[in-house]
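> Could you send the Metallo-beta-lactamase domain-containing protein prediction when you get a chance?

Sure thing. Input:
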Amino acid sequence: MTLQHNNHIRHIRNERLETIKKDYRGNKTIKGRFANGDEIYYPASSDVLRWQLSKNPQRNEKKRDNYVPPVHEGSEFINSDKDMIVWLGHCSFFIRLGGITFLTDPVLYDVPLLPRRAGLPCPPEHLRNIDFLLLSHGHRDHLDKKTIKTVFESNPQLKALAPLRAGDILRNINPHLPYQEAGWYQKFDLVPGEVEVYFMPASHWYRRGLLDMNKVLWGSFVIKTPALSLYFAGDSAMGQHFEEIEDLLGPMDVCLMPVGAYKPAFLMAKSHMNPHEAVKGYNLLRGGTFIPMHYGTFDLSDEPPGEPVRLLQQIAAGGMLQGLKIPAIGEPVLLQELS
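Output:
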């Protein structure tokens, strides 16, 4: 790791990995906390309190909205040899690309204080043949201890690809789980064959305990093969990184984009995107297929659960979103069939 001192400012990266952005010194930390560019961000406690004490203007609409993502039951996708994407709810995807199988941000149980609203296509322990975990950041609705334990028990070959300083979390879950940490603009070197995996920027923050605010990095992933580029956004606010990712790695054939937990905007706008912002990011990536995530599975915010889907359908009908695909949980999206 590289550390550069300047009034408590350091730049950190994994020196063993390739950095694809020219002259990039590494992720900036200020007094040990990671930043979005030059800004240390996390939700102010006053804004959280304001949210808790305020009345949701859509409270009655949300109460009437009984939308839950549909579930396509079955586990046939696990043993298939076809390249595909299978949504498992929230930001968890089963992805097979170039013969390598990935599981993104695996959260397949209830989260503390957050019961899961949507079902699963099969029990978590049935998920097998997983080669890599892709972990965008350490929030508990993206990195779940129980899920990772279960998946590793069923997949002893599993390795984790994770952000800088996430290793302590993973060692605490299971000290035998191999992992590699990367900073932004770095290429992991554990993936075999012609499949390349890059850790790229996101505009977000981290907290898992009482005193660890922004102590672990956050980001997004790009998976590339000679035939296809796939972008997994993790959690992110709108930012200039979408244009930069396209500039460095080219257009994204498939974009897995977060579209929920955006109200109230005074609290959420620097953490998450609303559907219009997600579509803007997708267009900056010159995306092909748009698959939404981060909606419907957990109740995280003020908007009604079905609102993100309705807004995406309206945007698509208006011609601003050409490649919208909204699969059911457990429904395989075969990559060879995408235009």
